[in-house]
Amino acid sequence: MKNLKMDNIRDYLMTNDIKPSYQRIRIYEYLMNSYDHPRVDEIYKALIDEIPTLSKTTVYNTLNLFIEKGIIHMVTIEGTEVRYDVDISDHGHFKCDVCGKVYDFKADIVEIETNLGESFIINQKDLFFRGICPSCSVKN
């Protein structure tokens, strides 16, 4: 799904009941081509030169709409660090303690068992690991 063209993104947004404004298309396109789970500030800074009328509020509202429609996930790392992920498949995340980069990894999150009992309804499962990535471990 990475590297969709603008026309395809327009169609994808429309299929998900999202009006495909230029700003929404560009924000989604940025997410599609960003492998590091960007924060709002990073998205805003990357697009402001191209879209001078863009505001951080628009970025927040657009991301919230995408989440509501189920086409992206919000990834909360360390409580206050919020990032966004266009990969909505079940997978885990690894954050490097040295460089701060966040990596995706395959994980069978659906099969993770809990002792919560049948009366609990689980709406979302997140799996996070922290440590040192291969690039940073070679430097040390």
What average pLDDT do the residues reach? 88
Q: What is the rounded distance between the termini?
A: 35 Å
How does CATH name the architecture of the largest domain? Orthogonal Bundle
Largest sheet: 3 strands, mixed
SS strand fraction: 15-25%
Order of helices and strands: HHHHEEEEEH
Shape descriptor reads globular
How do the strands of the widest beta sheet line up side by side? 4-3-5
Number of E-state strands: 5
The named CATH superfamily of the largest domain: Winged helix-like DNA-binding domain superfamily/Winged helix DNA-binding domain
Poorly predicted runs are none
How many DSSP helices? 5
Helix/strand structural class: alpha+beta
Kindly summarize this structure in a few lines:
This protein is α+β, with helices and mostly antiparallel strands and 140 residues long. It has 2 domains: 6-85, Winged helix-like DNA-binding domain superfamily/Winged helix DNA-binding domain (Arc Repressor Mutant, subunit A), CATH 1.10.10.10; 91-139, Dna Ligase, domain 1 (2-Layer Sandwich), CATH 3.30.1490. 34% of the residues lie in helices and 18% in strands.
Structural notes for this entry:
The longest helix is centred in the middle third of the chain and has 13 residues. With 140 residues, this protein is α+β, with helices and mostly antiparallel strands. Helix 1 packs across helix 2. The radius of gyration is 17 Å and the shape is globular. The protein contains 5 helices and 5 strands. Strand 1 and strand 2 form a beta hairpin. It has a 3-stranded mixed sheet with strand order 4-3-5, with no helix packed on it. A two-stranded antiparallel ribbon has the order 1-2. It has 2 domains: 80 residues, Arc Repressor Mutant, subunit A (Orthogonal Bundle); 49 residues, 2-Layer Sandwich (Dna Ligase, domain 1), CATH 3.30.1490. The model has no long low-confidence stretch (mean pLDDT 88).
